[in-house]
From TrEMBL:
Name under which the protein is recorded: Putative Flp pilus-assembly TadG-like N-terminal domain-containing protein
Organism of this sequence: Croceibacterium xixiisoli
Membrane spanning stretches: 20-41
Highest taxon listed in the record's lineage: Bacteria
Keywords: Membrane, Transmembrane, Transmembrane helix
Amino acid sequence: MAPNKNRTGFLPDLLRNEAGNTLAIFAAALVPMLAIIGSGVELSRAYMAKTQLQNACDAGALAGRKALAETGQYGRTEQGKATTMFRANFDHRSYGLGVPNFTTRADDENNVVGTVSVPLPTVIMNFFNFETIDLEANCTAELQIANTDVMFVLDTTGSMASSMSGGGTRISGLRDAVRDFHLTLANAQIQPETRIRYGFVPYSTTVNARGLVSAGHMPASFFSSSAPFQTRRVTFSVAENVGTGSNTTTGREETNAQRVTQSACSTWATSSNTTGTPPATTVTSGYQLVSWTRTNFLSTTGTCIRRSFQTTNTFKQIFRIANPANKWRYEQATVNTTGLAGLGQVAYATDVADTAWVDTAGTYDVRQLAAFGSQRSGGITTTNSTWGGCLMERDTVRATSFNPIPAGALDLDINSEPDAGNPGSYWRPMWLDIAYDRNANPYRREQTGTTYYPIDYRACPTEMMAFREVDMTSATVPGWLNTYVNSLRVEGFTYHDVGMIWGARLSSPTGIFADIVDDRPDEQANRHIIYMTDGEMDANRIAYTAYGHEQLENRIAIAGTLDTGPLEAIHALRFRAACQEAKNEGYTIWVIGFGTTISDDLRNCSSGDRAFFAGNIAQLRSTFSYIASQVADLRLTQ
């Protein structure tokens, strides 16, 4: 191998070798490359942490606003709920972060405002003296509300008068809960054009339509002109003729041509003859003695003078009670109800004397007795009555299945109005003034001063109210709303089906109240029913209810059903059907059990398991406020 003539030595070759500059160049470029890559990594970590931080802040603010809606204040307890929700949604350890500083407060508009900050330790950039990246997030939760209709279906049965262990009665707690509901909504962000309306259906054994009728929302023509009642009647069967008038005319005087004794004069001067038989007119014609004058002091005869006369007597036939000791017969009778639904005064008999009479034989109810008047009767005491507004339902069917609803169950038809061709399609005024209970003996002596049904057995709750717009510009409860909830009276048994039937009927946008419910067809509205009860179904066979007196009329259960269990089971089936009808009309149903367990029927009635238990007044008020916050819709604005 020939030698390399250009070889000059190692050091000159090394100096001339450019390959050695690569390391220096790489070393010089490494620092900015690490900074660029490190910043990218740190920014990526910061972005992911910041996103999670913002989500947790939002969740905490929403939880805080819900807590504010429930209690009406924002203190340590409510802040604690917000913090708990924040921590549940943000684990600072997974990002190697420090402890975040999360705080919330309520602003002047009752929005919950949250802020959070936390340092993010760097992994790469701390080599460049960038040790932490400060992360911050802000969040605000508010209540916002659109057009909304809320129908309150409220159990106002007798048990609502009972006291709670924490103080106060159940009904007072309910009144406060409705007020809390309103105040929660009033704290929401409401646009000027937004409309909020409330309606009410207080229920027990029936419902009260008087307010709907007086306002013109439910025409009086929707009520029948007669209805069957458990009432009492009197029979007049003993005929008696009584004189009504007598008229006597006299003629000229006549003198007996002969002198006669006083005895003979009396015979000659007092003859008469009567034609006709009562009660027809009778005419009595004859003579009456004018005078007998003795001829002289010693004579036994004298002058006899008489005068002719004619007396016309008129009579009428009356009828009296055959057995005054048992004059009242307690039974079912169809009674004329004309005028009741018009809210005018209607006369009825309250007492019948043992010697009472009428001019026509027959058996008469208390309204028919009052209609005789003083010219055609006697001994009958009457008074005027005004319908209280409670009603009896339309025709129904005795059935054990209501899915689908049978065609004849008009009570469960929440949309149709009465049909002139079907008398059973009309509602009936519940005329409690003439309603009487009875036992196996159809006769009973009069119960003075009472209609015999105890108060819970003849309950009539407070009037229903159709949707009414609520002023949301004030921070106080409207006067009319205060007045209404204070008027709620408690009595009677628990008929859940009656309450829900009328809650659905009064709320339906396609039913008989559609002109109220859907008065703005071009605007959508959120629709809610809030159904509150403090007890399970409590049907009573001897109470006067929307279905009459069940033990005597058997409109719901078959005759001979003595136990309340089967009766309540049938009412429960009707309740389920009514709940479904309300849902079919687009309503969200919220159910609250106040001091009572939530039964399967109540839970299934609610929409999406929106069923809540409230064990005391505080929980009831909190539940109403919470539902209001859900109705209003919590939203994030930041």
